[in-house]
Specification:
The chain is mostly helical. It has helices at residues 3-36, 40-52, 58-65, 69-81, 103-112, 117-123, 128-148, 200-211; strands at residues 56-57, 85-89, 97-101, 163-164, 174-176, 181-183. Helices cover 55% and strands 9% of the residues.
Amino acid sequence: MSEGAYGEQATGRVTHSLLRLNTAMRSQAWEWAESAGLTPTQGEILVLLMQRKMPLRLGEIARETALTAATTSDAVSTLEAKGLIEKRRAHEDGRALAVRLTGKGRTAAKRALQWPDFLSTAIDTLGGDEQAIFYRTLLKMIRQLQVQGDIPAHRMCMTCRHLEPSKNAKRAPHRCLALGVSLGDVELRLDCEAHEEADSATQKKIWKIFAQQG
């Protein structure tokens, strides 16, 4: 078998494996959502609002969740009718509406965070080194999907101007200047409230250092 043919088969197997994981995640998401009287999309919006800790406009919610404006509007209207969120005028623009959680919505959001626990159980069967390699691989894939425009940009450490990347994280961890903490590979964040996007040249430098460690 040629090296190219093997690479194509390996890519296909990885893709198929990810699709199988997606099937499990979709099934579990709907099972949880139905028990909570919500849809997975509504649960995702609740979690996003809880994680951001601030009111978000409809456009911001649509961008962060990669939903259409119409789907976002419908989901938000339903959540408002259920008393899980409330609309307020945005502080920076009184003409725009922003959405925030109610007390009831915060409780629902905390429950929504628990539905992926079945994945945590499976991941716990991996050793520490395996988890680190797996997470590094996922970060690289997420970054590529962002570059391709297939998923929205995350507030991740690897695109933040505050990160001082290490050329060998096992010997000397990465450093976050904003929080003043050291970070191993598995501690790098996908969504951080202290995130400030680095310029293009800095991002390329960070990713080059990160990629060379694999």
